[in-house]
Amino acid sequence: MTSTLNRTTSSSTPSVTIGEAVERIMPQGLPFRFSAYDGSAAGPEDAPIHLALRNERGLSYLLTAPGDLGMARAYVRGDLVIEGVHPGNPYDALVYLQNNLRFKVPSPSEAMRLARGLGLSHFLPPEPPPQESLPRWRRLVEGFRHSRTRDAGAIHHHYDVSNRFYEMVLGPSMTYTCACFPSETATLEEAQANKYDLVARKLDLKPGMRLLDVGCGWGGMVRHAAREYGVQVIGVTLSREQATWGQEAVRREGLEDLAEVRHGDYREITETDFDAVSSIGLTEHIGVRNYPSYFSFLRGKLVPGGRILNHCITRADNQFRDTGAFIDRYVFPDGELTGSGRIITVMQDNAIEVRHEENLREHYALTLKGWCENLEANWDACVDEVGTGTAKVWGLYMAGSRLAFERNEIQLHQVLGVRTDDQGRSGFPLRPTWLS
After folding, report:
1. Domains along the chain?
2. What confidence score (pLDDT) does residue 115 get?
3. What is the pTM of this model?
């Protein structure tokens, strides 16, 4: 097979340089320096950001998937480089580009002239990077969206990267959800412990209670509840790697009599009569149309008076939209987000009385900042563990997500509810105890 790196234009030397083409779609001028493998350049030489297009494959990625997907493909492959920016933490570059990029959509005739000028052969799509998931229509071989088989595949794609990699990025807590910072000077570990304790206090955990933690990850909440509150806990995760690591951590801490981390689908849990249910970072994966059955299932696991805490990423409005192409292909296949109002409505419609909710989006921005710093500090070891392409995906994803939380494009909501008894009693005190 002929390498896409060695392709040339179909018949003659291109009549438009790449630099000229970039200038034509940015009528207000380039806010960054751009250079290309054809020797062309554009934009101010002293710009703080320099994008370098290294080869023809990178150009084909950009032309065949305009937008974030094409740029991500070229960036992950190393065909598009942000010079002078650490790939583990490209946050400053993303802020600058988002603040200053202004594209003009060319007319059909102008687009055709540019295409011919650059060479029509560049519109043959190269093979995507190996880190990319299949498009949604091709995932049908794994079952319909949010079937158990397909959900397992999506979780495997994201979470079964490497436990060692996650240890270096997430830190000792091995917690891959939003932390709750008691102050801006708190460490990431302090903030994660504070988050788990906030969940425990909202659920009013006490010794001897039974807790179900769905989507438990590496078992951070499982171990915290058992260790700090003397609670009997079952945690469940679809990631085999997480379950193996989490159960070993339970054994290391001597919590086998209280805690268990299972590998499986939350829908396979047969036990009932739990005093509390925590769902920390799972709702993003289950599909919005499955919310009613999800919350109905969790309510059915509770005793009367039992509490449920749902902690998940949300949109700033209540419209349902798929995640962008980059997130869907490289980070969370089949992930879906909507607003906190939709979540609260579905909980109420399934006989869960909502007692409290709060938005922790600034906390997630700080959490992502800490993870990016960890990735940058451990870059060489992370690359040795998972490869440069995967490490770059994570740097881009986490830095971009930090920016999205800061700009209120996405949020993080905790919603606390209760299954009231037959007389409507909640067991809640007159004022929240977890705020004291």
Report:
1. 16-123 (no CATH), 151-418 (3.40.50.150)
2. 81
3. 0.89
